[in-house]
Amino acid sequence: MSAYRRWWLVAGVLLLIWGGISAATGCQPVEVVSTKARQVIVLYGFSTVEEVFNDEIFPLFRSHWLAQSGQEVTFQGVFTSSEQLSDAVIGGAPADVVILPNEWYAVWLSINGVLDEHWRALPNEGVVTRSPVVIVVRPGNPLGIKDWSDLTRPEVKLIHPDPRTSGGAQWALLAEFGAAALAEHSTPQAGYEQVRRIWANVIATPPSIREGMRVFLFGTGNALVTYEQDALLAKARGASLEIVIPPRTVVSEHVAAVVEHNVKPWEREGVNAFMDFLWSEQAQRAFTRYYFRSATDETLNDPAAGFGALAQPFTADALGGWGEAYPEIIQWTIEELLQGR
Length: 341
What we know:
The protein is 40% helix and 18% strand. The protein has helices at 3-18, 50-69, 82-90, 103-111, 167-181, 188-199, 209-217, 228-236, 268-278, 281-289, 322-337, and strands spanning 38-46, 72-80, 97-100, 127-137, 158-159, 202-204, 223-227, 242-244, 248-258, 293-294, 312-314. Strands 1, 2, 3, 4, 5, 6, 7, 8, 9, 10 and 11 form an eleven-stranded mixed β-sheet that branches.
């Protein structure tokens, strides 16, 4: 067998191992029937949380709640790109719980009457997991990429998820902008210039962080912007890649919330218990097993588990919060750099 055919065979096997997006990815309505003895909880989440919820969080809570209440819980999970997720829930999808890639999507759902302000009263204002934004490169890092500024070099062919559809891509823009704008003696203009130069090298804009990894593993490009979590999970499953953590990068914060008007009175106790469970030590440890950083206990983010050191991490607050960051950075990029793509 030729080396070329062997490469494609390995890539195909990796993608099979990696697993497919849920059959419900299209956000089709699901049939929901709850009774006193059995409850169905419907959860809609952004694509990269699919494995940890299906493999860990759902089974763990099912056992926990059965032992505590005697009630059996069945979960129906729908996992897709951030934009499809929000459109589906706004359009009436029967989600009891949503897992959103950033605060901006929670605000957007609130504006559209889907969420109320109760989500801010949850632990960590609803933030349930975290993950820094990183750069993924080919084995050996042949281009010597070490920082966001290296993505502006002419030889870089960058895979970057689309910020119009991906919450992870929006975090990436904050990382690219903030790395330059937050430097000592810098200005916002330096941030805009860095984003502009990075996007000059973007050759593909998949709709989600997860799709970005698929495109990269199939051999397109020589660099990818993604969550540390998705990169570590791919690497743990045999993908051939290296992870670069820039000295200054944003730490993404993912939000959980209840869609109150979809929760029937007899379902509320179970849904509330599930939400409490997400911030329990048991659940937070489960998240770290799938390479999300704990939102509640930094000691769970053990470097021995693969988490990289962060030299100068920042959050959206350093850029004025999502109320300023979205229109001034995300919307600017969409209008100035993505028209026609």
